[in-house]
Structures are given as structure tokens and as C-alpha cells.
Amino acid sequence: MTMFVNSMKAFCNSRSLLYSRSIHVTKALNLYSPAALGIDGYLQSRKRVKDQFFNFTDTFRAKMRDFVSEPKHMIFTEDLKNMVHMAEPTDLDLILNMIKKFNNQNVEFRFGSFIFGPVVMRMFHFLDAPNEALKSFEDPENSGFYDQLVSYQILLDLLYSHEMFDDMYRVFEKVQEKQLNMTKFPKYPLILVLAACYKQNTPKSLEYATKIWTEMTSVGTVPVRRAATLFAALALNQGAPHIALESISMQKPHYVTIRNIKAIALAEMGRVDDALPVLKAVMDIDLPEQNQKHTFFDETISKVRSCVEKTENKDLQKEFENIEKALRDRDLIDNQTLDSLVTSEINLTNRNTRKLQGMPQMPYGMRKNRQNTRENMV
């Protein structure tokens, strides 16, 4: 472990002169599915509330504006719940003010135990409002309102989809400061912040990811596979195959992302003779009639081939050609990419979500350009 930490520190120090202010990113989509974030449940509650307030929504909004502006009025739990579930983009300023007033009312007047943080973040996510979500989250007057790990997860996913990576780092540092549920490295927010580092793909983002990884492993926290593959893929992109190889060392080798990363990392470290057995090993597992084949990416084969050619070792080149032919003959090479797998959508639930009639099934930002009229939307 000490050698790994020192190796990563030395690498990051050697790369420090390469830093620049420019940030190169690729397009990011949401990393977690709506079901995984609980947005499907929010949509069902949204439809129920809007049905309940049918023809009375404007009246209710006007009442809430009065309640916010008049010191003598209070915002009750049901008021905020209803407004959050009927919210449209034009209501965001009103809701921000309602949250602030609700959170600052005397505690003795609150008798319910409803936890608003995750529900409000689902609303922001659905309305595709990252700036308002971040503003509310960082408002000191809302202290404690979003102190739930799932609230952080939803906010980070929303920021990720808008490529607001520097903001994600700041939010994650808040997660670590709070240590909610007695953990400094909660797995779902951790995956998201490493995804941000991967998408940003700069020497500085690798340094940030390395710092997190070093702290995490030094206290004995075992990262989940997606976190490991995101970190490893970033290291490969930044020319650090030794970091990539070490970061997947605690993962089971039979996963497709793990074996592809291992083969690429070994080859790019100049250890082609160790990379070839990794490629060859799947042929001892797979049979032609198997449905679940242990495959390699075409891009992996191409990268290993390039490293083999650089050795100018005829015996190694011949062995690689034989292995590649055997893999292709058995249909064990496909066109997937490491990027597509490490950034693929994560769904943490097996529940069958019910699509209610008239309920929008995509975030506001994706819906707003459609030709749906307001009347057809809940």
C-alpha cells in the first residue's frame, strides 16, 4: 500500500508542470437512472398532488407568495410538500424562498418528521435546474436541510449531467466534512465524483482523484467496482497505466471492464509478455455455445497490438497474431468501448416502475424542446 501511495504521489508531482487552466470535457449524461434516484416515486406523487389541486394551482401559488412575504405567516410541511410536487420552472424562486423560510422557522412549531432534502433534490433534478439546486444547497440559511446522503447523490448526478465538475468537487468536500452515516467515502457520491474526474480528463482531475483514492485506501475502505474502473480509465487516459493496474488489484478479474483495463495497462507498461496471457485466459473459459462470453474490446486488441509491434520481438508478434485470430474465430472481440461501459447508466433497483398515463417520463431539460403542450404535462 505504501509503495502504491508513493508511486501515485510521485506521478502527480511529475505531472504538475503540465497543468493548464483549460478543461477538456466530453458530453456527460446522467450517471444514475431515474429509478435509482427515486425520481419515479417523485413523479407518482407529483401526479397525485396535481390531480388534487386541479384548477386550484394558481390560487395555491398566490397564497404561498403571500405567506413567504408576510412575516406573520408560517410555511407548514404540507405547504412545502404540495408546492414541491406541483412545481414548474417558473416556481423555482418561490420554492427557494419557501425552503429558506421553512428551515428558519422555530423548531418547536414543527411536529412532523418529513425529510425534505431528497424530495426537493428530485424536484430540481426533474426540472433540470442545477443552478437553483446548488444555490439552495449552499445557502447557509438552509443548514441541515440537505443532510442526507441521497440528497448529495441526486445533486451530484444533476451537476454531472451539466458538466459542472468543479462544483461537484466542492459538494463532495461537503460530504466528507459532514461524514453522514459515519462515512467519509460514501460509495454513490464517490462514484459520481470519480466520474467527474474521468470526464474532465486533465492532469489536475487525476491528481484530485488520486488524493481521494489514497485517503480512502489508507483507511481500509474497499472501493466498489465502478469507482475502481472510473479511476483506472482516467489513469489510462492520462498516461499512468501503473496507477490503473494497481487501482483494480482488489477487483474480481472476470468482469469485462477489469480484464480489458488489465490487458491495456500491462501492455502500455511494456509488459506485453504479461498482457498476452490475460487475452489468452478467456479461451480456457468460453465455449462457442455459451451465451455469456468473456470478451475483449476491439480497442483493447488494437492498443495491445501497438505495444507488441513496438517490441520488435518477432516471437511475441507471432504469439499475439495467433491469440488475436483465435479470439476473433470464437467471436470474443466486440465493438464495445471502455468509455461506454464506465459511463453507462447505473440502475440500483429492480422495481418495475409504473408509467402513469399522462406522466412525463424524462427530465424537463429533455422535454422542453418537445412539442408537448403544457396541458398534456402533469
From TrEMBL:
GO CC, alphabetical = mitochondrion
Query: Which GO molecular function terms does the record list?
Result: RNA binding
What domain of life does the UniProt record list for this protein's source?
Answer: Eukaryota
Chain positions covered by the region annotation Disordered: 356-378
Q: Name one GO biological process term.
A: regulation of mRNA processing
Provide the protein name. Pentatricopeptide repeat-containing protein 2, mitochondrial-like
Organism in which the protein naturally occurs: Papilio xuthus
